[in-house]
Design brief:
The protein is an alpha/beta fold. It folds into two domains: 177 residues, no CATH class; 92 residues, Rossmann fold (3-Layer(aba) Sandwich). It contains twelve helices and 13 strands. The strands form two sheets. The protein has a nine-stranded mixed beta sheet with strand order 3-4-2-5-1-6-7-8-13, with helices on both faces. A four-stranded parallel beta sheet has the order 10-9-11-12, with helices on both faces. Helix 7 links the parallel strand 7 and strand 8. The protein starts with 12 loop residues before the first helix and ends with a helix. The model has no long low-confidence stretch (mean pLDDT 91).
């Protein structure tokens, strides 16, 4: 769905009218956060958001699993497979599954790391362990209490922040902010901007680290696209961030087309975009996550040929601190589990 515009504006009449529903939703969500989750027996690291919509979780998960691999771990990502029809538990196979089966984010992640999809997280946890996982990385699920987390990284966009700081549906927050911060182990602020300064201060006040990061574009893609005039489209949590990233790289974005997050693109929607680009001699560019939703197995249908992906990766400003923090928390988690046994 498209996020309501009033979520990212100063408190409005609409947010005021919806505040009673937000209070009720927040009471339930806050109560759920108090529940004790199931101990997986191996470390569980969660990458989540305080709010609905996108903030850079997928690049953060990819950076984290890369680090875990460097540390000699065998990570498996656990996802509910939002947007997919399969309830699981199932291991994602990029050669066999499509986004409509398992969701776009799991399909994209599965090109790099094993991914278990399951509507019931305990079933997915069991499947991940059966694959030899030494660490489970939860893609989202911070507010879900079913699985106990040993480490929770929260990702926030420096430009968007938390919007009007109201609880859904009056605003984008998934639960009251104080109990969410209490359960945060580290905050990762992505991009430039000041919208995350207040929540960063709240996290630091609890002596928890706040790490800065940037989304870095692939040098080859940037070099090639700088010679092109571009039509860009995206169906992610914040399409405007994608368009800003392109322009920040010196790419001439002539046209923009924004769709709802996880939008299931059809041939009837893509062909007019390609025709528009053809008339004006534009190169069509989208995100890797959007391109995944156009594919059939490992192949791209004929009607989507010519669309160029724009890969990005997360680059932490202090990668050494990030590595040391993860290593320390893994050690603590294993010590706790050893003492329990």
């Amino acid at each position: 769905m498209h996020e309501p515009a009033f979520w990212y504006r100063p408190p409005s009449l609409m947010s005021l009218l919806l505040s009673p529903l937000g209070a009720a939703y927040g009471a339930v969500a806050g109560h759920r956060l108090q529940r004790k989750g199931f101990d997986a027996g191996i470390p569980v690291i969660c990458v989540g958001n305080y709010h609905t919509g996108g903030a850079g979780k997928t690049p953060t998960v990819l950076a984290l699993v890369g680090l875990l691999g460097d540390l000699g771990e065998t990570p498996v990502v656990l996802s509910r497979g939002y947007g997919g029809r399969l309830r699981g538990p199932v291991m994602v196979d990029p050669a066999r599954h499509i986004a409509g089966d398992v969701g776009d984010e799991p399909l994209m992640l599965a090109r790099t790391v094993p991914v278990a999809v399951a509507r019931e997280r305990l079933d997915g946890l069991a499947l991940a362990k059966s694959q030899g996982a030494t660490v489970v990385v939860m893609d989202d699920g911070f507010q879900n209490p079913v699985v106990a987390k040993d480490v929770s990284f929260i990702v926030i966009d420096a430009n968007r922040g938390l919007g009007n700081t109201k609880i859904f549906p009056a605003g984008p927050l998934r639960a009251p902010l104080p109990p969410q911060i209490d359960r945060t182990d580290a905050l990762i602020v992505i991009g430039e901007g000041t919208a995350a300064e207040a929540v960063s201060a709240m996290v630091r006040a609890q002596d928890k680290p706040v790490l800065s990061a940037q989304l870095k574009a692939d040098d080859g893609a940037v070099s090639w696209l700088r010679d092109q005039r571009v039509l860009a489209f995206a169906g992610i949590g914040d399409p405007a961030r994608f368009f800003r990233t392109l322009r920040a790289c010196g790419i001439d974005v002539v046209r923009e087309h924004a769709f709802a997050d996880h939008h299931p693109f059809t041939q009837g929607e893509i062909e007019p975009l390609l025709a528009e680009a053809g008339r004006d001699r534009l190169t069509v560019v989208t995100t890797e996550k959007d391109l995944v939703r156009l594919g059939v197995g490992a192949k791209m249908p004929a009607w989507a040929q010519g669309i160029v992906p724009f890969p990005v990766r997360l680059e932490l400003e202090d990668a050494r601190t990030f590595c040391a923090f993860v290593s320390d928390r893994l050690s603590r988690a294993r010590n706790r589990k050893f003492r329990k046994d």
